[in-house]
């Protein structure tokens, strides 16, 4: 996909990867970028910084009615949605003992929000015979977020759902990509480090933390090639192969890293 003259929607647009994508889309010549986030004030501030091409909307991605309203409003305002980036996500830092409320929120934000997106945008895209869905799924969806069971489980589900959509709708003109970065310098990582979450410490110890702008650059390249898996950290592909070929050895390596960090 070439972003020139395209209309894009980005959830989780108040900062981090979402705002970096918005800036890069505008630089690529997008006709309009709609930023949506639960933090409406921060989203408006980002849109104002970007300029008149950007439009801000307050949105709770776990509310399907709000997602449909966002899609309807955008289609009325701009005539179509060429690219919808379901980028909002949450981490918990918890294991099996995480309360049900944390599991439920992770499920609703990291998975059901993608389902709501697909339900809302697919009818018009299918009528046109074109459209693009970009889901921010995280490398945790291909590997494991050590120390965060809800994040790991829901990001795997997100990748699985994106894969299903790609198989089901590609021949109808719909493109789907799963964006799977590893460590990114975002508030989510900073909050995890401040709370002492094991997963955030593993990411920081890896020495492979990218900026949101670097993730946006990789995303543009992936969209241009219409790749299903967009991996800002290329090494993730090798990790995934190792995990598939030798799951016991892969788990042993991670256990060793965890023991080192805990010591």
Summarize the structure.
Helix content is 56%, strand content 14%. The protein is α/β, with parallel strands linked by helices and 263 residues long.
Question: How would you describe this structure to a colleague?
Answer:
By secondary structure, the chain is α/β, with parallel strands linked by helices. It has one domain: Rossmann fold (3-Layer(aba) Sandwich), CATH 3.40.50.720. Helices cover 56% and strands 14% of the residues. It has helices at residues 16-27, 40-50, 64-78, 100-128, 149-169, 187-194, 198-206, 212-225, 235-245, 247-262; strands at 7-11, 32-37, 54-58, 83-86, 131-136, 174-179, 183-184, 209-210, 229-230. The strands form two sheets. The chain has a seven-stranded parallel beta sheet, sandwiched between helices. It has a two-stranded parallel sheet with strand order 7-8. It starts with 6 loop residues before the first strand and ends with a helix. The relative contact order is 0.13.
How is the secondary structure organized here?
Elements: E1 7-11, H1 16-27, E2 32-37, H2 40-50, E3 54-58, H3 64-78, E4 83-86, H4 100-128, E5 131-136, H5 149-169, E6 174-179, E7 183-184, H6 187-194, H7 198-206, E8 209-210, H8 212-225, E9 229-230, H9 235-245, H10 247-262
Parallel strand pairs: 1-2, 1-4, 2-3, 4-5, 5-6, 6-9, 7-8
Enzyme class: oxidoreductase
Pfam family, one: adh_short
GO molecular function: oxidoreductase activity
